[in-house]
Amino acid sequence: MRHTGFTIRIAALAVVTLVGAGGCALDPQADPGGTGGGLAPVGKAEQVTGASDVSPSDQLARPTSAAPTTKPAAPRKEAAATTTRTKTPPTPSQKRRAPAAPVPANKTRCAQGEYQREVEGYLARLGGFGTVTVDGRQTDADCAAIKKFQQRYDIRPAAGRAGPLTYDVAKRLATTDTSRCDAGSGVTFCVDLTRQTTWVMKGGTVVARPTVTRTGMAGYATPAGTYKINFRNLKEWSDPYEVWLPYWQRFNGGIGFHETTTYLHNASIGSHGCVNLLHADAVRWWELGSVGSRVVLVGRRPGT
């Protein structure tokens, strides 16, 4: 793979940051253990993510206040006091503080989302995020569990609200069937292209639970099949897309695992065939992988 000077790389990174597109290290000159060259660009923008057609945000829309129809009247000046008032000391009964108003049972630190019950159910199935009650009512415990889930999978904002993006991610993870992956005796990296999830198995046992990923967008579909990792680099430079690819593990032509260079849940952009990972997952996949590790991809990403 051709490498350029440090100054050119910095300038290229600035361009890629402005454009906001992920990239893969396409190197048709060398493909030991792979199946051939990269994917031909079509130029069609990505419109889907995961198992849905859109990647909605969990952010609540801000209400728009209407402009006043009449000009408010100017405040009247208060007349000067002409009499002297005598302050009466409070009676003993007045000194007693009135009891605080009761707090409604469903008032919590987090807003309740439109997918409250569904998200509670998926988080209960996944486990590991705290106690949730599957009743469709937001509680402080539910709020904390949803926030923890959102922080783990970089869902923004991580405000504890069970919105459409949180629902989409939770559903994809909870419904991933790890038995679909034909794992070998060693380390096997598994990718469910349909659900846009990935996990790692060793000796038939899951050693890294399913997490979110983003594969090739329309025109750059990541192909299903069985491959082997044939090259690794902690920080690879992509010549065609001029972007750094952290924790690079190539397994098919110019396609490989690497840390995402953009917001993983943004549906308007996507990879050029690579398997994008969140930072924590890219580090973990790097620690588990080695040249020769098996890679199995099943299904097909919707819209590709």
From TrEMBL:
This is L,D-transpeptidase catalytic domain. PROSITE patterns: LD_TPASE, PROKAR_LIPOPROTEIN. Residues 49-58 have a biased composition (Polar residues). The active site is at H258 (proton donor/acceptor), C274 (nucleophile). InterPro entries: LD-transpeptidase, LD_TPept_cat_dom, PGBD-like_sf, Transpep_catalytic_dom. SUPFAM superfamilies: L,D-transpeptidase catalytic domain-like, PGBD-like. It comes from the Bacteria. GO terms for biological process: cell wall organization; peptidoglycan-protein cross-linking; regulation of cell shape. GO terms for molecular function: peptidoglycan L,D-transpeptidase activity; transferase activity. GO terms for cellular component: extracellular region. The keyword Glycoprotein does not apply. Residues 1-21 form the signal peptide. It comes from Micromonospora halophytica. It holds the Pfam family YkuD.
